[in-house]
Structure formats: C-alpha cells, structure tokens
Design brief:
Layout lengths: L16 H10 L5 E8 L2 E7 L9 E11 L1 H8 L16 E9 L11 E4 L9 H4 L24 E5 L3 E3 L6 H4 L2 H14 L6 E5 L3 H11 L5 E5 L3 H10 L3 E3 L14 E6 L6 H8 E9 L12 H6 L3 E4 L5 H12 L9 E5 L4 H7 L9 E4 L2
Parallel strand pairs: 8-9, 8-11, 9-10, 11-12, 12-13, 14-15
Antiparallel strand pairs: 1-2, 3-4, 3-6, 3-15, 4-5, 5-7
C-alpha cells in the first residue's frame, strides 16, 4: 500500500461527527482558530480575525491534520514533567499541512508545498547541536505544542529550517503521523537493523506499529510484536510482524544462540524496558524509545553485564531521522493510515483528548482536522 495513495483509514470512527467535520472543513472561513489549554482541564477555542503573519525566517502553514498522543493528554491532565510545558499553550506537535505564506528571508517557492516539520526548537550553536545531536540541545527546552504554539489550530508559525517538504501527491492525513515515525526512525538509526536479524518490538501502539512497518523493510528473519491488547497485535501482524505475543509469553529462550539481535521498546510501561532487555540475545542491542511510566521497574545491571547488552535510548528525533521517515513515507514503505481510528474537528478537542489514554483497546490514533 503506497503511503501517497492511502485513502481514509478502515474503521474510521468519526460517526455523527463526520457531518460536523465536513461543514467545518468545507465552509469558507476568515480568521484563524486555535485550541488554547489555559491550565490542566480547561481550554477554549480562540478565533483571531486574521491569520498570524510569519516573521523573518518563518513560514505560516495551513494545518491539514494534527495527531493527539499521550504527551498531549499529559498537558490536559497536568501530569507532564515540570519544564516540558508552558501554560497557556496551544498543543499539537504531530501535524501536516501546506505552506501558505513565507516571511522575510525565506524562499517564496515554498508557498503551496505540502509539508511536515520538526518540533524541537534547537539553538544550532551549542556543542550538541553542532555535532548533529539536536535533541540534546543544551539551551532551555523549546518545542512546538509544548512551549510554543502548536498545530491544534487552523494555522501554525514555525522556522522554515524545520520543514520537511513532501511530494505533491502526498496524503496529508497519513503524513500527520510522520512525527512519531521520525522518533521510530531515530531508534532504528541507533539500533542499526540488518537483513536477517531476529527483531522484537515491545509495545504495539503508534510507535510500535510504525516500527513494525519500518523494520519489515529491513528484511528481518523474524519480527516479533509484543502487546497485551488483541487489536494492536492483529494490526501488527497485518503490517509485517511474523509473530505476536502478550507480555510474559515471549521469552528469549535458553542457550548461547537464544534471544533477539535487536529489541526496540516503545511501550513506556512499568516493566517494558526490563522486558525488552530480557528478550535480547547475548551481545544483543536494545533501544528504549518509550517514556517510562512512574514506578518503572529498574534494569538489572547483572543481566546487562553478563549478557553484554548494548542499551541505547532516544528522545525525540534529530533531522537525520526526520529525513529517513519522510523518504520512507514518500517511497511507500511507511503507510500510517491503518493506525487511525478517529478523526474530529477542532471543536471536538475535549472528546479527542478523552479518547487518548482512555484505555479502550479499540482506540488507535486520534486526529484533529481543522
């Protein structure tokens, strides 16, 4: 299935909201709306008479689709770690859209281009940025949708240097999932899968299912997806996993050749990091991409040492990972559409954020579409 040809996802659960969304999207509008979370549990829909103007080096993007993830739910619940959100805030760090206007110093040829864009506002001048490790920027944390206005809006302003333009025929609904796909790409660039590897993915949420798609393209000899929920396991098998299991069923086995060459952890559950290490073979590679839940089980240093495991972590995605994800999407190797279960208008923000993290196993990726 080509990512560029993907249509509306199967099982789309817009329901009665479909009519509302059609009117919302199709009617001529002036001004610019945005969802402002004033403080945890309180939001309002703002309307400006005119769209914001981009400044020097900036572009204005007409938002097509914005994804909601667990981090946005943390903003709503007030549980995001101190320093990683600034209220009031317009959330939305997973998005796709079209460049509508360019500011001074920006190539006007970008106008009209379909695009996605990085969220981290790195300083470009510290040692980590200069070495290409932009997600480790030593300047104070700044990110679209957390400390800067995000994409739960009709329009988004951001530096042009953060854009990753898409092919003209790109499906913008699917493209909104390229932000989590870039995080997965960062994990794979770190884990370095090679053809013939035995690979396990712990967690089959959005990150895990995107990992299954990208890892399938690396021709593993076995690709295991581990998740307690039946629907994500079924979808993982459809997307390329050769075997699925619930936590506790999967085991590294015994003997010197047992275990997986590469284990990618995306769940962020209390025991998933420890579970990932337990699945790795002796000398294997483990990449932790999930943000650990409070009270997470610690890693066993004896296990790490005796098995000589290489354990790495990723947080966010540098530009190289974004480029990887966008290339895979443009080539049809990454088709995120089947992950989407709900699409709502901006006015359905509270319903959408309630769905995320509700625990309903039938809820996959939830999108807002201005």
């Amino acid at each position: 299935m080509s990512a560029r040809a993907a249509g509306p996802p199967a099982g789309d659960r817009t329901g009665d909201r479909a009519g509302d969304h059609a009117g919302d999207h199709g009617a001529a509008r002036t001004g610019s709306r945005s969802v402002l979370v004033e403080r945890p549990g309180r939001h309002r829909l703002l309307t400006r008479p005119e769209p914001p103007e981009p400044g020097p080096g900036e572009v204005r993007v007409a938002v097509h689709t914005a994804g909601i993830c667990a981090s946005d739910r943390e903003i709503w619940d007030g549980t995001r770690a101190e320093g990683f959100v600034r209220y009031p805030v317009v959330p939305g760090h997973e998005w796709s859209g079209t460049v509508e206007a360019t500011g001074p110093g920006v190539d006007p040829a970008l106008t009209g281009r379909k695009t996605v864009g990085e969220g981290f506002r790195n300083c470009q001048s510290c040692d980590r940025c200069r070495s290409g490790e932009t997600t480790l920027c030593s300047a104070p944390y700044q990110e679209t949708g957390f400390t800067r206005p995000g994409a739960f809006a009709d329009h988004l302003i951001l530096p042009a240097r953060l854009l990753h333009p898409l092919p003209d025929d790109a499906d913008l609904t699917s493209a909104a999932l390229l932000e989590p796909a870039a995080v997965v790409a960062a994990a794979l660039l770190t884990g370095k899968p090679v053809p013939g590897d035995r690979i396990a993915v712990v967690g089959a949420g959005t990150l895990g299912l995107l990992a299954v798609q990208l890892l399938t393209a690396s021709s593993p000899s076995e690709l295991l997806a581990v998740d307690p929920r039946e629907r994500p396991r079924r979808l993982a098998a459809e997307l390329g996993a050769t075997r699925t299991a619930v936590p506790g069923e999967a085991a590294a086995g015994s003997g010197p050749a047992a275990g997986y060459d590469l284990v990618v952890e995306t769940a962020g559950a209390r025991s998933s990091a420890a579970d990932a290490c337990a699945l790795a073979r002796r000398g294997g590679r483990v990449v932790l991409a999930g943000i650990a839940a409070p009270g997470a089980t610690g890693l066993d240093p004896g296990l790490l040492t005796l098995r000589q495991l290489s354990v790495a972590t990723v947080f966010g995605a540098p530009s190289a990972a974004w480029s990887y994800a966008v290339r895979a999407f443009a080539a049809g190797l990454l088709a995120p559409g089947p992950l989407v279960t709900h699409r709502l208008p901006l006015t359905g923000f509270e319903t959408a954020v309630t769905l995320v993290g509700s625990g309903d196993p039938e809820v996959g990726k939830v999108l807002l579409q201005p």
